[in-house]
Amino acid sequence: MKAAIIGTTGYGGGELIRILANHPYIKIHSIHTTRDEKPVSEEYPHLTGIFDKVLTKIETDKIAEESDIVFLATPSKVSGKLAESFLNKNIKVIDLSGDLRLKDPTAYEAWYKHESVDASILNQAVYGLSEWNREQIRNANLLANPGCYPTAALLGLAPVLTEKLIDSNSIIIDAKSGVSGAGRSPSMGTLYAELNENFKIYKVNEHQHIPEIEQQLSLWNEEEVNVTFSTHLIPITRGIMTTIYVQLKEELNTSRLLDLYKETYDGHPFIRVRKNGVFPSVKEVKGSNYCDIGLNSDSRTGRLTIVSVIDNLMKGAAGQAVQNANIMFGFEERAGLEMIPLYP
Ligand SMILES: NC(=O)C1=CN([C@@H]2O[C@H](COP(=O)(O)OP(=O)(O)OC[C@H]3O[C@@H](n4cnc5c(N)ncnc54)[C@H](OP(=O)(O)O)[C@@H]3O)[C@@H](O)[C@H]2O)C=CC1
Ligand SMILES: CC(=O)N[C@@H](CCC(=O)OP(=O)(O)O)C(=O)O
């Protein structure tokens, strides 16, 4: 299979190269930029001698003619337009941005603060939460890869919500992210001097991932769900931890809930459920496509604490995108994604 990557010079695009350069069935055919054409190893010197392919301009007709799949690792607004231009061109599209994830264009415009693509395009996009939407992903031509925070939050909440074990109005998701989640374009908030030895909350009750999380939770719950979701920037390069608090409908101890999580995710190679009393940390998934989950049920308060961790660039972006491509083409789900986390 031949793949094209647009947005190659960003962090998500760079991570796609790291994965696909060693993929057994998907070969990187072309990589693209809006800037000057040059070997990508000039942009990313760590690729020198390993992957020196030249970045070329974005010509959608040519890309569609030459490749089987295109990965859009581009900013929101840009991605939606590119996805539209690839439609009906006999090429599969995986978009890493938020442009195709929300089914309601009005909600998109309210949260993303710019124009949505047409509803007819949104309706064709399949939401690519790999573990929960595999059948639809298998037949998708246009795939909306989930956001980094929603991936961690939804994988952590799904078993108890789908089994209707929690009060769906009680969900609080406290999320923390490393700085690569903000992308490669410099901004005040990501300056070393502002970030180092700091811990900041941002986009309080305004984060664009709130409607994405609520959309999927409402589908599972068959009734509208609203969540409290807060995001924090922490001085690490990669990694997301979501600490989720929910009220249980009836008392259930930690062991029973862990059994439910283990059964639910049995056969899903990238979800690892921890033992009773053990919680995952972000470094334990760094550089890998794993989502690790730990939990504890507090009989005193009746609340359940769920902790999920991912690498935002892997399971939160490029890793899940390749996992979805594997499902779309019928390859083994783990193909190209068997890297062991980088520890310590
Ligand atoms: N970073 C993360 O952890 C995650 C990111 N995402 C999403 O994935 C996408 C990529 O993110 P990330 O890699 O972090 O972002 P970056 O800012 O690091 O990179 C974005 C890339 O998009 C390209 N680009 C910018 N404008 C245009 C344009 N008008 N036309 C074509 N290409 C353009 C740029 O490439 P060039 O300058 O070479 O043209 C740039 O390198 C975003 O939508 C982001 O929201 C999703 C989940 C997690
Ligand atoms: C740390 C950090 O700034 N993270 C970004 C993640 C954005 C992202 O990935 O955006 P989409 O998923 O909507 O494309 C943020 O919180 O906005």
From TrEMBL:
Role, per record: Catalyzes the NADPH-dependent reduction of N-acetyl-5-glutamyl phosphate to yield N-acetyl-L-glutamate 5-semialdehyde.
Active site positions, chain numbering: C148
Pathway linked to the protein: Amino-acid biosynthesis; L-arginine biosynthesis; N(2)-acetyl-L-ornithine from L-glutamate: step 3/4
Top-level taxon: Bacteria
Subcellular locations according to the entry: Cytoplasm
Keyword terms of this UniProt record: Amino-acid biosynthesis, Arginine biosynthesis, Cytoplasm, NADP, Oxidoreductase
EC number: 1.2.1.38
One Pfam short name: Semialdhyde_dh
Family indicated by similarity: Belongs to the NAGSA dehydrogenase family. Type 1 subfamily.
InterPro entries: AGPR, AGPR_AS, AGPR_dimerisation_dom, AGPR_type-1, NAD(P)-bd_dom_sf, Semialdehyde_DH_NAD-bd
Molecular function as annotated in GO: N-acetyl-gamma-glutamyl-phosphate reductase activity
Source organism of this protein record: Mesobacillus jeotgali
Domain Semialdehyde dehydrogenase NAD-binding stretches: 2-140
Catalysis performed (reactions): N-acetyl-L-glutamate 5-semialdehyde + phosphate + NADP(+) = N-acetyl-L-glutamyl 5-phosphate + NADPH + H(+)
Classification via SUPFAM superfamilies: Glyceraldehyde-3-phosphate dehydrogenase-like, C-terminal domain, NAD(P)-binding Rossmann-fold domains
Protein's UniProt name: N-acetyl-gamma-glutamyl-phosphate reductase
